[in-house]
Amino acid sequence: MSEHATKMPVNEEALAGEVNQEASRLLDTLLRYKNIILGGAAALIAVAAVYAGVTLWNAHSVSTASEELGQILLTTEGDARVDALAAFVEDAPDAVRNGALFELADVQMRQERYQEAVGTWERLEASLQSPELSILAKLGKGRSLLLDGHAAQAQEIAALMQSEAPEAFLIPVNRLLAAAAEEAGDTQTALEAYQALLSGGQVADASYLQYKVQELQAK
Predict the structure, then answer these.
(1) Residue boundaries of the structural domains of the chain
(2) Structure pTM?
(3) pLDDT tens digit string along 69-123?
């Protein structure tokens, strides 16, 4: 079309009519589906209210459980603490349970209830998300097995950990491996673990480690 072509005049009445028709259709749609729209909004509000209530209840439950755990630790000891903690962890909220399990494993070991401690460490190992805390649980399990007379099993755990543990954990892993291997009669593995501890700069008990190396080398 030529630039000089005459432009068609805007029919304001027709345009107004189209706008009114479109607005009318929109209004009809809103009225027709008002129950669905309002129902959806009500559902969202209800869900938000339930979520807020659950969140507040969870926070209250965690706070109450934390107080109960603190009371157990303040008022019990020995076998009484073992029994109280064992009962507590069964119904404790997730946010509190792992801390209570660590306390339970610790007191079980101090009470020389090593077999029970192994089970507690296994529960922790299965539930912990942190790799570092999981390593602590494995160390605890290995130590409990060693003290319970299962040196070969403790050695297996330590040997697996030695290949996967971060450098910061190699010292306790090598200590467990050395003690377990020596107890299990694996002189060579024990010797290598003691040597690894020495080469890692364990000056605090270097004399003891040197003694162990010399003792094992003489066998």
Answers:
(1) 39-149, 151-219
(2) 0.71
(3) 899 999 999 999 999 999 999 998 888 899 999 999 999 999 999 999 999 999 9
Token reading at 195: 């040597």
Angle, vertex CA 159, rays to CA 164 and CA 107, nearest 5: 90
Fold of 39-149: 1.25.40
Instruction: Tell me the two tokens of residue 13.
Output: 């009445």
